[in-house]
């Protein structure tokens, strides 16, 4: 039996169902339980736990449940815990796992504290131990241990320049890997001679393991010359500290010389594609003709938003031709995943998902029964409290009624201010996971 066609008036409920399905598929705790078993502990005298990233708390809680009394000690590093959460934190983590709040999207003193705590923890290991490393998006900034000759200030300045340059996350992490004792396999090397098991939740397009949180357990991730090529590509020489440029040009010390390779096994336990496919399945259940049109959408956010909007308009259900038997076509749902970038040239405030949505709104202006939503799966889009935006064909009409020029806000990279006045900001709060961004398009 054909499902009842969804109604445009219900688009908010439809989007809520798609987000819920995507987040369920990216649930970090369930992913850890699926991929970590007591059999992994065979032969280990001591088991240590390191969690880093936006999903670190949920992943560490799940891992601790699997490890039970075998867990000797651990460190979990995550972003700011909301005021209501600290009271529950000790219920979520055993006493032998320390929680440290790191910084994001730029490292903070907490990130450095976390790096030193992990270094101290790993200094205990022997060849008969196991270190379980839980990696999720955001880990590059949340935990930091600069290499010799570099300071936290150097790393912060470099991160800020990269964030504003329009560089992709893969390019950013190519630079950050070369400046850290933990990134690019550095954490696994510090854990040697213990065995290392990495459970990795991907927030990077295509899920290259070396790019996720800058690959702390991926040996060989540092490629000579790759970082300096990024600096040249985006004209960043004048914006980086001299110590960073020296490190990128001449190396950063003997960290990897004459050291035996650690025993490492890495497992990819969740991704953007899985979340997108779950959203498509949810759309089918709602009665949409739904399709995942890729999990590799990258590039300038405004270009990504325009491209997605045009594809949605092209996919709208076509009315019957004269003389054809009439059958109501199913409404369409398009889902796309990936992570765009913003080259900041204006003075405004926003994030990549908000900028993509504003560009999309310009394309679907005055188009009936069309909805687009952008969504950062971690619940945080750039330096704002929004996770994304919902726009319709009526969005710019509301803006014009308020005397607002959407093009001006887009050119000033001020999408947050625009939607704060017009409406449409999607505020979810931190979701506890991170598998890149998703875009949902509904055409009724």
Please sum up the structure shown:
This protein has helices at 11-25, 28-35, 56-67, 86-92, 109-122, 139-142, 152-165, 169-177, 186-191, 226-233, 242-250, 272-286, 301-314, 352-363, 395-401, 406-411, 415-422, and strands at residues 47-52, 71-78, 97-101, 130-135, 195-201, 263-270, 289-292, 332-338, 370-376, 388-392, 425-426, 437-443. It is of the alpha/beta class and 444 residues long. It folds into 2 domains: 8-23 and 273-318 and 327-443, glycerate kinase, domain 1 (3-Layer(aba) Sandwich), CATH 3.40.1480; 36-270, Rossmann fold (3-Layer(aba) Sandwich), CATH 3.40.50.
What is the secondary structure topology, with strand pairs?
Blueprint (H helix, E strand, L loop, with lengths): L10 H15 L2 H8 L11 E6 L3 H12 L3 E8 L7 H7 L4 E5 L7 H14 L7 E6 L3 H4 L9 H14 L3 H9 L8 H6 L3 E7 L24 H8 L8 H9 L12 E8 L1 H15 L2 E4 L8 H14 L17 E7 L13 H12 L6 E7 L11 E5 L2 H7 L4 H6 L3 H8 L2 E2 L10 E7 L1
Parallel strand pairs: 1-2, 1-4, 2-3, 4-5, 5-6, 7-8
Antiparallel strand pairs: 8-12, 9-10, 9-12, 10-11
Helix pairs in contact: 1-12, 2-3, 8-10, 13-14, 14-17
Account of the 3D structure:
By secondary structure, the chain is of the alpha/beta class. The chain folds into two domains: 179 residues, glycerate kinase, domain 1; 235 residues, Glycerate kinase, MOFRL-like N-terminal domain (Rossmann fold). The chain has 17 helices and twelve strands. The strands form two sheets. A six-stranded parallel beta sheet has the order 3-2-1-4-5-6, with helices on both faces. The protein has a six-stranded mixed beta sheet with strand order 7-8-12-9-10-11, with helices on both faces. Helix 4 links the parallel strand 2 and strand 3. The radius of gyration is 23 Å and the shape is globular. The mean pLDDT is 92.
């Amino acid at each position: 039996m054909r499902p009842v066609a969804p109604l445009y008036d219900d688009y908010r409920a439809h989007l809520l169902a798609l987000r819920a399905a995507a987040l369920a598929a990216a649930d970090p705790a369930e992913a850890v339980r699926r991929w970590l078993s007591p059999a992994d502990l065979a032969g280990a005298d001591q088991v240590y736990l390191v969690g880093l990233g936006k999903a670190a708390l949920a992943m560490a809680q799940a891992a601790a449940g699997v490890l039970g009394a075998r867990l000797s000690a651990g460190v979990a590093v995550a972003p700011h815990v909301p005021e209501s959460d600290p009271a529950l934190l000790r219920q979520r983590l055993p006493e032998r796992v320390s929680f440290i709040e790191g910084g994001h999207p730029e490292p903070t003193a907490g990130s450095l504290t976390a790096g030193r705590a992990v270094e101290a923890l790993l200094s205990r290991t022997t060849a008969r131990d196991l270190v379980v490393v839980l990696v999720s998006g955001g880990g590059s900034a949340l935990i930091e241990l600069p290499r010799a000759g570099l300071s936290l200030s150097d790393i912060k300045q470099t991160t800020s320049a990269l964030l504003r340059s329009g560089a992709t996350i893969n390019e950013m992490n190519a630079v950050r890997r070369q400046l850290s004792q933990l990134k690019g396999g550095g954490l696994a090397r510090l854990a040697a001679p213990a065995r290392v098991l990495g459970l990795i939740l991907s927030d990077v397009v295509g899920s290259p393991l070396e790019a996720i949180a800058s690959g702390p357990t991926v040996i060989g991730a540092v490629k000579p010359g790759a970082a300096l090529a990024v600096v040249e590509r985006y004209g960043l020489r004048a914006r980086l500290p001299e110590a960073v440029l020296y490190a990128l040009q001449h190396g950063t010390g003997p960290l990897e010389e004459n050291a035996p390779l650690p025993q490492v096994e890495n497992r990819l336990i969740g991704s953007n594609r899985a979340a997108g496919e779950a959203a498509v399945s949810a759309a089918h259940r709602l009665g949409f003709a739904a399709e995942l049109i890729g999990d590799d959408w990258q590039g300038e956010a405004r270009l990504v938003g325009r491209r997605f909007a045009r594809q949605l308009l092209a996919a709208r259900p076509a009315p019957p031709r004269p003389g054809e038997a009439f059958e109501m076509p199913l409404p369409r749902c398009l889902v796309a995943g990936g992570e765009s970038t913003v080259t900041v040239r204006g003075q405004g405030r926003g994030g990549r998902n908000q900028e993509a949505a504003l560009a999309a709104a310009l394309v679907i202006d005055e188009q009936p029964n069309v909805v687009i939503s952008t969504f950062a799966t971690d619940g945080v889009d750039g330096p704002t409290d929004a996770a994304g935006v919902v726009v319709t064909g009526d969005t710019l009409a509301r803006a014009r009624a308020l005397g607002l020029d959407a093009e001006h806000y887009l050119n000033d990279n001020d999408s947050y201010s625009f939607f704060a006045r017009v409406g449409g900001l999607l505020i979810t709060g931190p979701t506890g996971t991170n598998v890149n961004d998703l875009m949902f398009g509904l055409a009724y």
